[in-house]
C-alpha cells in the first residue's frame, strides 16, 4: 500500500470521549494507518482550558488550544472531530469545516436532531463527509446499517432502548421494586446518571436519538421537535408491579414508525415514552445501562442490534470507525454515502398514532361500576382487551385494571380524562402505554 | 437529483433468493432510484432452464438466458449479482466480471470462504466493488459493521450462531428432549432442513461463515480449510440433558478469536463445534432458525447482532442493500471499501486453543475410582473445575460428570483418550466443549 502524507485531525473537545479518541488514535496508530493507507496525525485539540494538566494523554501539550475557530480554519486540517456537544458554537464550527471541504465526524446528537439539514447542506456544499455513528447507541453499529445495509429494503418500524441511564433506573425498579427516586439515587452514585439527570430522565436524550433514527430509517427529515416525548419521572413502583402482573416489564422506548395512510401516502411518527412490553420481547431482556435497537423491515424481517450505548471507550470506538471511513474516502478522493432525505414524509402527531393503554382505577366497590366504566370506553370508541377487578376490602374500594386494544392515542387520552371525571372513580392510579403482543 | 442512464444488472441464478431479488427490484423501483440517483434495470437473468414458466415474476420472458458467460461479458452490464452458489462456474463468472470492471454482489459463502483472495485480486484489477453482505447471517447487517464501523477498534472475538437449520434442531432438542434424528425429521418437514442436510448438520455451512467473519474481523485471510469443524450429528439427548443440569444449553457455535502469543505476535483461530453455553449468555436465548453474532472489541465492548439468518426475502434484502451500495459507487465513479487482509496473521490450530470440556464417564462404582480419574487429568496438566458423582444402583455402576478449567484442546483430547483406556471406565458417555462462564 503506497504511503501518503498524514491526514490531519482537528479534535474539538477533550472530555471522556475525546480523551478515549486520542488514546485510541495513539494505541491503534499502526492498524489505523494500514486500514486507511495513510497515517493520521493530530493537528490540534480545542479545549476550554488548554493549560490544564492532561498528564495521561500521549500528546504534546502544545497541541492544545482554546481557539477552536482558528483550528477548524487551518488549511492543513483534513478532518474535524467534534465531541463537545450542544448546539452552538458546535454548529458554526462544523458548518465552517464542511463548507471548507473538511470531513466531519461528530457525536453531537442534540445538534443532529435539531438541525441535520443545515449540516447536510454544508456537507453537500463542500462535497465532503458528515459521519455521526457515535451519536446514537454509542458503539453499536446502527446508523451505517440503516444508511447502507438496509437501503434495498423498506424499514417499517424501529423500536429502541437508546438511553442507558433510564434503562439502568427502570431495570433496578423492576428487579428490586424500588421507586424512581431511590433507583435514580443509586444510578447517580454509580455514575450512570449525571448530577443533572434531566436530559436523560425526561427523555430529551432519547428523543434526539429517535429523530436521528427516524430520519435515517425512513429517508426523511425528523427533528427533535417532531418527537412526542414523555420521560420516566412519573413511573411508580406500582406501575412496574402492574407490568409484572401481566408478564411485562417497563422500558423507556423510542419508537419510530412508517405507515401508509388510507389515502395511499406514507407518513412517519417518532415518540419516546415509558411502555410495558412483554418479557418475551427481545428488548425486555436488555438490562442495566445497555442499549438495543429492534428494526423491522419488509424483506429483512426483525433485526436487533445490542451493545454498550454510552461510555467513553464505546463511543470513541464509533468515532474512530467514522474517522477511518472519512480518512479512507479522502485518501481515495471521494465522499461517502450522503444522508438521503428524499422521501419528505408527513410527520404523524401522537394523537393519530394507535397505541394500547394499561389503566388502573381506584373505584367504589359497588354494583354497576364496571358497566359505567365500560360505557365510557365504548363512547370513545376504545375497545377493552381485558379487565381485572380486585376488591380491596377496606372502605368499599376496588381496583379496576384495564388493558385496551389498539386505538388512536387521542381517543385513549380523552377516555382517561372522562374516567377521571366519574364520581365512582376515586382516582386514576396508573396509566401506561403497552407495546408488543401481550398474553392477557 | 440528476437522472442518469439506468444501471444494468446481470442476475445469475433465479432460485429462492434470486426470485425475491427480482421481486424487490420491481416493487421498490422508485425508492431504489431515489437512493441511487439512477434507475436500475435488469439486462438479463441467467438460469439453467430459461423456458421454464416463472409466471409470477414481473419480468419479460426474453430476459432469461442459459448463457451466463455471455451475459456477464455484455458491455452494457454494470453490476453482476450472483445467487447461484458453489465454487465453479461461479468463480470464473465473477472473476471475469470483476476484471472487466463490473461491480459484483454475491451471496456465495462457499466460494468466499474458499477463495476470497482470488475474487479480491480480480476486484483490485478491475478497480471495482465486490460486496457480499448476504453471504453471512442473511439479512443481519454484519459484514459492513465489521468492515467499516469497527475499523477504528480491535475486534478480539466473534461468537456466532450462524446456521439456522442446526439452531432449529438444537432448540427443539432442548425444549422437547428429542434426539437428533427426531428433531432433524421435524426440521425437514417444516422446510428448515434440506433434503440433504449434510452441509448444515455437519457444520460446513457454519465453517464457511466462520472463515468469512474471521477474515473481516481480523483483517487477515482465513479460509474454510483453516476452520476446525465438528457438526451436531453426534449431539445426543443425554448431552442436552447434561447441559441443562449445569444451567446451560447446547448451541452450534462459530468462534473466531484473536490472541497475542507469548512472543508478542498475534494469531487467529476459527472453529465450529457444538458447545454448552450458560442460559444467561445472550446467545442462549437465540431460538428456532434465528441467527445472532456476538462481537467483542477492545473499545466497543460487547455487541450483538440478531435476526433472520436465512430465507429468500431476508437474504434478498442484504443483496439489495449491496446492489444499492455498488450502484451508487458506480454513479459517483468510485469504488467502496475493499477487503483489507494486511494483517497476515498466523492461524492457530485447534490443539493450541484453550477450551473447557464437560465429560460424563460411566465408571465402576468402587472406592478409588475418582482418585484414578483425577490422576489422569493431572498427568495431562488439565485442572478440574467440578466433579459430580452419581451412583446408579444397578450393576455397581456410577456416573462421573466432570467439568474442566480451560486447557489446550490437545491436552483435553488426550485426557479423554487416556480416560477411555482405563479399565474402571466402562464408557465415555459424553464429551462436549463448554463456552462462557458457567455457574458451577
From TrEMBL, chains A, B:
Residues bound to NADPH? 109
Q: Which Gene3D superfamilies match?
A: 3.30.70.260, Dihydrodipicolinate Reductase, domain 2, NAD(P)-binding Rossmann-like Domain
As cofactor, the record names: a metal cation
Record InterPro entries: ACT-like_dom_sf, ACT_dom, Asp/hSer_DH_NAD-bd, HDH, HDH_cat, HDH_CS, NAD(P)-bd_dom_sf
Q: What's the name of the protein?
A: Homoserine dehydrogenase
Physiological role: Catalyzes the conversion of L-aspartate-beta-semialdehyde (L-Asa) to L-homoserine (L-Hse), the third step in the biosynthesis of threonine and methionine from aspartate.
Which taxonomic lineage is given here?
Answer: Bacteria, Bacillati, Actinomycetota, Actinomycetes, Micromonosporales
Similarity-based family: Belongs to the homoserine dehydrogenase family.
- UniProt GO MF annotations: homoserine dehydrogenase activity; NADP binding
Report the pathway entry. Amino-acid biosynthesis; L-methionine biosynthesis via de novo pathway; L-homoserine from L-aspartate: step 3/3; Amino-acid biosynthesis; L-threonine biosynthesis; L-threonine from L-aspartate: step 3/5
Q: Which organism is it from?
A: Actinocatenispora rupis
What Pfam families does the record tag this protein with?
ACT, Homoserine_dh, NAD_binding_3
**Catalytic reaction equation(s):** L-homoserine + NADP(+) = L-aspartate 4-semialdehyde + NADPH + H(+); L-homoserine + NAD(+) = L-aspartate 4-semialdehyde + NADH + H(+)
Tagged with keyword NADP: yes
Query: Which Gene Ontology BP terms does the record give?
Result: methionine biosynthetic process; threonine biosynthetic process
Q: Which PROSITE patterns match?
A: ACT, HOMOSER_DHGENASE
Q: Which UniProt keywords apply?
A: Amino-acid biosynthesis, Methionine biosynthesis, NADP, Oxidoreductase, Sodium, Threonine biosynthesis
Q: Which residues form the active site?
A: 209
Q: Which domain of life is it from?
A: Bacteria
Q: Which stretches make up the ACT domain?
A: 358-433
Amino acid at each position: 500500500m503506497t504511503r501518503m502524507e498524514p491526514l490531519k485531525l482537528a479534535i474539538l473537545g477533550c472530555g471522556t470521549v475525546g480523551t478515549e479518541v486520542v488514546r485510541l488514535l495513539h494505541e491503534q496508530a499502526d492498524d489505523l494507518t494500514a486500514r486507511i493507507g495513510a497515517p493520521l496525525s493530530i493537528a490540534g485539540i480545542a479545549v476550554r482550558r488548554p493549560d490544564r494538566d492532561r498528564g495521561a494523554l500521549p500528546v504534546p501539550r502544545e497541541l492544545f488550544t482554546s481557539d477552536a475557530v482558528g483550528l477548524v480554519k487551518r488549511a492543513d486540517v483534513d478532518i474535524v472531530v467534534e465531541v463537545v456537544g450542544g448546539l452552538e458554537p458546535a454548529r458554526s464550527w462544523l458548518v465552517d469545516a464542511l463548507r471548507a471541504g473538511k470531513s466531519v465526524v461528530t457525536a453531537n446528537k442534540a445538534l443532529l436532531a435539531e438541525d441535520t439539514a443545515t449540516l447536510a447542506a454544508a456537507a453537500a456544499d463542500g462535497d465532503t463527509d458528515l459521519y455521526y455513528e457515535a451519536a446514537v447507541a454509542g458503539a453499536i453499529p446502527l446508523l451505517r446499517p440503516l444508511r447502507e445495509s438496509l437501503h434495498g429494503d423498506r424499514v417499517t418500524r424501529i423500536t429502541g432502548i437508546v438511553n442507558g441511564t433510564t434503562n439502568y433506573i427502570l431495570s433496578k425498579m423492576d428487579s428490586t421494586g424500588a421507586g424512581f427516586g431511590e433507583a435514580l439515587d443509586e444510578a447517580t452514585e454509580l455514575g450512570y446518571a449525571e448530577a443533572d439527570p434531566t436530559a436523560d430522565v425526561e427523555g430529551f436524550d432519547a428523543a434526539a436519538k429517535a429523530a436521528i433514527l427516524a430520519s435515517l430509517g425512513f429517508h426523511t427529515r425528523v427533528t427533535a421537535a417532531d418527537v412526542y416525548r414523555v420521560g420516566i419521572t412519573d413511573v411508580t413502583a406500582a406501575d412496574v408491579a402492574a407490568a409484572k402482573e401481566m408478564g411485562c416489564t417497563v422500558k423507556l422506548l423510542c419508537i419510530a414508525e412508517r405507515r401508509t395512510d388510507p389515502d395511499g401516502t406514507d407518513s412517519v411518527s417518532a415518540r419516546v415514552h415509558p411502555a410495558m412490553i412483554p418479557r418475551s420481547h427481545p428488548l425486555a431482556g436488555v438490562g442495566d445501562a445497555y442499549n438495543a435497537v429492534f428494526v423491522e423491515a419488509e424483506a429483512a424481517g426483525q433485526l436487533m442490534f445490542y451493545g454498550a450505548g454510552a461510555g467513553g471507550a464505546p463511543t470513541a470506538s464509533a468515532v474512530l470507525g467514522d474517522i477511518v471511513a472519512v480518512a479512507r474516502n479522502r485518501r481515495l478522493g471521494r465522499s461517502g454515502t450522503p444522508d438521503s432525505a428524499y422521501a419528505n414524509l408527513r410527520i404523524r402527531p401522537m394523537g393519530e398514532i394507535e397505541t394500547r393503554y394499561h389503566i388502573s382505577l381506584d373505584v367504589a366497590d359497588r354494583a354497576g361500576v364496571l358497566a359505567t366504566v365500560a360505557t365510557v370506553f365504548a363512547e370513545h370508541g376504545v375497545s377493552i382487551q381485558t379487565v381485572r377487578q380486585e376488591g380491596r376490602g377496606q372502605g368499599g374500594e376496588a381496583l379496576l385494571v384495564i388493558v385496551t386494544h389498539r386505538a388512536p392515542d387521542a381517543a385513549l387520552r380523552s377516555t382517561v380524562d372522562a374516567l377521571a371525571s366519574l364520581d365512582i372513580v376515586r382516582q386514576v392510579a396508573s396509566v401506561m402505554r403497552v407495546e408488543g403482543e401481550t398474553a392477557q
